[in-house]
Write a structure and sequence with these properties.
It is a single chain. With 420 residues, the protein is of the alpha/beta class. It has an eight-stranded mixed sheet with strand order 3-2-1-4-5-6-7-8, sandwiched between helices. Helix 4 links the parallel strand 4 and strand 5. The longest helix has 32 residues. The chain is elongated and about 80 Å long. It binds ligand SAJ. Ligand SAJ binds next to helix 9.
Length: 420
């Protein structure tokens, strides 16, 4: 039924998904506005980092199943995986979804299926269908013709964990929210090409809310852990020990405090619920505020340690002081520094005027935000040998292995419980 599949947006979700269809011998046309991404993929290479993806893309392109272009072409099914960021005031920005809709509209043909995968506020799939209908009055859509529509439309969120994308795309269950029963059934049939998990059918609005609920649930739980960490610090209690003890209760599972919540999903998606029901989403909003405040709280701890270091070394000025920041990534054992609370903290420390010794074993180049004269990448050994203050910001495996050495550091801020 679906021979040619078009993926609109070849980023962290679109490219792996497109490649998995291609690996099952579907003809896949990938579309992206970035000429660089298109050229890289057409050479059989990748422009993002994700384990196993490079080998799969190389094979799919060289065997002729995957091809990238900047201009949409006719296909049997269109999947949209473009960014849905938020604007000022945490209002969702649907401009990429609208641009994708308007770009595929001219090539749509009777019998096509359109699926939105981007994390979206409730009602976005209906908006997508409305934009398509506006651009193609000659075709019918589910809001007009239901099961009989020329073009069926569904929402199907991705739920994969960065670093495990290929594995999770295949094995995770998928929630499929068609605007009609026919849309859901067609989408199920399509995903079954490579999905080994269950395909669970619902309507589009529930599927949209389901994705937002999953990430908000995690955000609220992380906020609980982060709030506990600040309360325990004030009360002189070791929060890591406390959580371990509490988690011995058979029905309690407290998550881990950290320097804040990073990444492109959990720190964004809850705002889509807040913007839909601001007066009702009080807990979800507060969780976001607690997690967003955590980097500032860690920075205050570092400032206090710097004051202690200067008091202990009266001959030194702030410019002489060295603060080691262990970890810059947004979570352990990845190389992704985007939206990372550790980056925010490291740049905040640099702005204080001291020297920042940044240790990030997973990257070789610093992001622009950290290209500062008093901040440089250094080895872990080098940093520990000369730092006046040590601040652990990410629980990378490379750091856990030297946990013992850190205990010798007189001024240590352990934001992630490396030492327990
Ligand atoms: N974090 C903590 N404490 C914890 C767990 C996480 O501080 O106990 C922090 C991490 O350090 C990181 C942030 O939260 O800064 C987010 O990390 P994560 O591993 O919880 O999630 P992501 O952003 O990598 O991926 C999430 C996943 N969602 C859920 O687990 C509910 C993934 O399945 C989604 O597909 C992804 O968001 C997405 O694309 O929406």
């Amino acid at each position: 039924m679906f021979h040619a599949i078009s993926m609109i947006g070849l980023g962290y979700i679109g490219l792996p998904t497109a490649t998995l269809f291609a690996s099952r011998k579907k003809q896949v046309i990938g579309v992206d506005v970035s000429q660089h991404a298109v050229d890289t993929i057409n050479q059989g290479k990748i422009h993002i980092t994700e384990p196993e993806l490079d080998i799969l893309v190389h094979a799919a392109v060289h065997e002729g199943y995957l091809r990238a272009t900047t201009r949409p072409e006719p296909a049997d099914a269109f999947l949209i995986a473009v960014p849905t960021p938020f604007q000022d005031g945490h209002q969702p920005d649907l401009s990429y979804v609208e641009a994708a809709a308007r770009s595929i509209a001219p090539v749509l043909q009777k019998g096509n299926l359109v699926i939105l995968e981007s994390t979206s506020p409730v009602g976005t799939t209906e908006k997508l269908a409305a934009w398509l209908a506006e651009s193609r009055p000659d075709l019918s859509f589910p809001q007009q013709a239901g099961e009989e529509a020329d073009i069926q439309v569904a929402y199907c969120p991705e739920r994969v964990l960065p670093g495990r994308v290929i594995h999770e795309l295949v094995s995770n269950d998928r929630v499929i929210g068609g605007m009609s029963r026919a849309a859901s059934e067609q989408a199920c049939a399509l995903y079954k090409t490579f999905v080994e998990g269950k395909c669970l059918i619902t309507n589009a609005r529930t599927a949209e809310m389901c994705k937002l609920t999953e990430n908000s649930c995690r955000d609220v739980n992380i906020a609980f852990a982060n709030e506990l960490s600040m309360i325990c610090d004030k009360l002189g209690i070791n929060v890591w020990e406390l959580i371990t003890l509490a988690n011995h209760h058979p029905r309690v599972k407290v998550l881990q405090p950290g320097p804040g919540v990073g990444g492109h999903c959990i720190a964004v998606d809850p705002w889509f619920i807040v913007s839909s029901a601001p007066e009702l989403a009080r807990l979800i909003r507060t969780a976001r505020e607690v997690n967003d405040h955590k980097p500032e709280w860690v920075l205050e701890k570092v400032k206090a340690a710097i004051t202690d270091a200067l008091a202990a070394n009266p001959s030194k000025t702030i410019a002489d002081l060295k603060v080691a920041c262990l970890g810059l990534a947004f979570k352990p054992d990845i190389d992704d520094l985007r939206e990372s609370p550790a980056v925010e903290i490291a740049s905040g420390i640099a702005k204080l005027g001291c020297q920042v010794l940044a240790v990030e074993p997973n990257v070789e180049v610093l992001p622009k935000k950290l290209c500062l004269p008093n901040l440089g990448l250094i080895s872990l050994e080098g940093a520990l040998a000369s730092a006046d203050v040590v601040c652990v910001l990410v629980k990378h495996r490379a750091f856990t292995e030297v946990g013992g050495d850190l205990r010798q550091q007189p001024l240590l801020i352990d934001a992630v419980g490396l030492l327990g």
